[in-house]
Amino acid sequence: AQSVTQLGSHVSVSEGALVLLRCNYSSSVPPYLFWYVQYPNQGLQLLLKYTTGATLVKGINGFEAEFKKSETSFHLTKPSAHMSDAAEYFCAVSRSGSARQLTFGSGTQLTVLP
Amino acid sequence: GAGVSQSPSNKVTEKGKDVELRCDPISGHTALYWYRQRLGQGLEFLIYFQGNSAPDKSGLPSDRFSAERTGESVSTLTIQRTQQEDSAVYLCASSPGGQSGYTFGSGTRLTVV
To answer: What whole-number distance in Å separates Cα of residue A92 and Cα of residue B84?
Structure first.
């Protein structure tokens, strides 16, 4: 079984401030981890993914995430928020070695204040 | 096409009517997924197709829900005798397989009145 917990359904940051969106997972096998972003009235867009190898993963739009096995976490960060980052962000986990469905977290709505 | 295409983008239907939602995956993507996103909630897995294998239907919430896919092409999700709780955005995603990540369509917003 696998599950994903995103702490904080809503996060607000000022423009230029650090963005930190939290994601913890549980998985009975080594996980594959993903972050997706959903802009209003659009589908989900892949930000970044961790499969194997380097635990610090860089994605699009200046986002990055670090896989920490000891903490079962995959938090998403960006050093400096931009107004265009306002969106909903979803963390997801999939079991490695198995092309099965992703399990998504409930999402975090990011608001960027001017 | 370049992306996953879903139609219609919006659908309003009366309670008790049947609806059919369509998904055109990216050409060559062997895996296709349907998810449901209710207002203010995360994505809920519905069904998964992989090539010509039997689909994984473990996420379908009731027997009113069914989906078909012919080979590696278009998929349709059918909801019979719609209920108000079926109101949601239905998202389709396709993948080349493995752990490549999925490409999502922009969804169909279904409203049952």
So the answer is: 28
